Amino acid sequence: MTEAIEYLQKARTALMAFDPAKAEEWLHKFETELRKHRLPQDAVADCAAELSIIHGLAGAACDGVAAAQRQLTEILKLSRNLDTYDSAGQKKIAQVGLETAKRF
């Protein structure tokens, strides 16, 4: 196994451990290794497989972040108006979120 593939495996492990900074560091080391030394022909398939896995993990992470952003936006939208009731059972509507900026 070449150092380049080891770097990719470590990058994959870092992604799975939710450490994107460390994964990026390993990917930079992979890139540097490829610039210094040519990848042996028998290691190309292994390298391609690792890169494919990393690509899939990165795509899943992007999808997860986008979903979280959508959820937070929806939560903020819904939380701006909370229905509350006074001791007599009368409904009160209280604006609890940030008001939108007004331009003059």
Explain what you see.
The chain is mainly α and about 100 residues long. The protein has one domain. The protein is built from 3 helices and 2 strands; from the N terminus they run H-H-H-E-E. The chain has helices spanning about 5-15, 20-35, 45-80; strands spanning about 80-85, 90-95. The protein has a two-stranded antiparallel sheet. The N and C termini lie far apart (about 65 Å).
Please give a handful of descriptors for the protein shown.
64% helix, 104 residues, two-stranded antiparallel ribbon, 3 helices, 10% strand, mainly alpha
In the predicted model, the low-confidence regions spanning at least 5 consecutive residues are: none
First-last Cα distance: 66 Å
* Fraction of residues in helix: 55-70%
Strand coverage percent = 5-15%
Number of DSSP strand runs? 2
Order of helices and strands: HHHEE
Strand ordering within the main sheet: 1-2
Nearest-angstrom radius of gyration?
A: 25 Å
**Helix tally?**
3
The overall pLDDT, averaged over residues, is 86
Report the sheet with the most strands, covering strand number, pairing sense and barrel closure.
Answer: 2 strands, antiparallel
Count of spatially separate domains: 1
